[in-house]
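Input record (Table S2, row 595):
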Amino acid sequence: MQKSSSAILRNGLTFLKPYKKQIVIASIALVFTAALTLGLVQYVRVIVDRGFVEGSTESLNAAILGFVIVAVLQALGTFARFYWVSWLGERVTADIRKAVYSHIIELHPGYFEDNLSGEIQSRITTDTTLIQSVIGSSASIALRNLLMMVGGTIFLFITNPKLTSVVMICIPLVIGPIMFFGRKVRRLSRSSQDEIANVGAYVGESIQQIKTVQAYNHQQYDDRQFSTHVETAFKVALSRIMMRSFLITIVMTLVFGALAVMIWVGGQDVINGSMSAGELTAFVAYAVIVASAVGAISQVISELQRATGAMERLMELLEAKNEIAAPENPKQLNGEFRGLLELDEVEFCYPSRPETPALNKVSLSIQPGESVALVGPSGAGKSTLFDMVLRFYDPQNGKLCLDGIDIRELDPQVLRSHIAIVSQQPTMFTGNVWDNIRYSRPEASDEEVLAAAEAAYASEFIDKLPEGYDSYLGESGIRLSGGQKQRIAIARAILKDPEILLLDEATSALDAESERKVQLALEKLMANRTSLVIAHRLATVMNVDRIAVLDGGQLIAQGSHSELMEECELYAKLASLQFAEPRISEVTAEAVSEA
Ligand SMILES: Nc1ncnc2c1ncn2[C@@H]1O[C@H](COP(=O)(O)OP(=O)(O)OP(=O)(O)O)[C@@H](O)[C@H]1O
Ligand SMILES: [Mg+2]
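Output record (adenosine-5'-triphosphate complex):
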């Protein structure tokens, strides 16, 4: 649902609240400089009437002195105004960026399935920049000119009411188009920013996956797609600019038309002596001030409208509800934490597939210190089960308990502090080896990191890297092989030293020799820890206490290897096919025929 712009603006204004003092300073400077500019014209009137027309040197000198003093004050005021207004713009933008990021980073992972990362990035960068320019300049331009417009009009009345009344009749003619086109600009601005965000998302994805893009000669296709996005963005921007141009043209024409009428009528008055030359000069000066104020306002008003569009998008992000939040009064894991993990009739469908359950009434209990292997065909729901344990999603029915407490009653931070995961695609972050292993425990000492790397059999390849542990791994660890990334991820888990361990095919990218070593390391790691291992190899299933077989989201059997070989047909088949590591073609043929 779309919120009204006033509601959005009100939310945006909360970001200004902490800076009342700065706003007061900026406002004083704003009023002060506007008043001085208007006052300056009075000196112009005196200079013309006394100095030029009457020829009094004395009056001219005094008036000039006054003029200079006012001008200097004006300059000082302008400094304060510019500094503090820009300060506010930068400060508020920084705050909005921080608020959006810290909100986003806590959101449930499901949120990011519908909202592309590139688009979110674009909102945090481009949209906030727009807001910065508005608070840091457009808003102050609008305010200053509003003051000038009102003040100038008052002085116009004082100087010559008759003339002014003529001009005032024109005002509704000016306001009308501003309102009409302004609304259009706002709508177009929103879609223009949306298009820019699309462009950003597109670039992000293709650059991250550059090898796949080039391997499939997808560049030209991507190029065309990208061009389409850019051209759409251009077209939307063009219609926005068109509206703006109309707006400015109409306002300018009206304003200068009114000005011409005024000077003509006033000129008659000066000719027949009912008005002094100074008065007419002042009158015209005020009229020009008022006219340019109106012009300036009509220009920045569309800027303000654009910013409202941007604010709308940012507020949408800020108001996105976190579906996996800590409860009001989270339960504590009191006393000694044991690591008893129980799944009770867990039913779960991914939000995008509400009809097909990824987990169907899964009940599984893992005793403290026990290790359980999860086996099952691809797509059976093994990784999904890990996501449930980490509470990335909540089940639609049933519950997961840790030491007897429903994990929904725990603070997710507390829950996750007891779990370490080595996922199917080990994730590296921009940084060096130290940073990546320390990811799980930033305060760990160098010795602890070295020991963890040693235990994960990672040190042997790290030592061979050009700069050892200081080697920079590139974005997402692009400078490492798959197996190396896995060992770093294992070292990371070892360093965390959790009570509960989740391993998702943690040794799949290793050669037989390294696998054996890592297997040893994992065994050490799994000892006396509640462990759930997604296993595709016999070596793994042989070392665990129990094996659970998952198929199509259902837990169909559990037991030891030999028990399952006899009782579970699927397991026997999996074991003979996968664990025995047959020729790849056989497995593929089997998988194809199954699908
Ligand atoms: N984010 C998602 N949104 C919708 N459906 C999903 C999502 N992630 C996985 N699925 C679906 O849920 C089912 C279980 O997926 P899951 O990743 O748990 O399988 P898996 O057992 O780990 O398979 P594999 O051995 O291939 O890793 C699959 O049918 C998959 O298509
Ligand atoms: Mg998986």
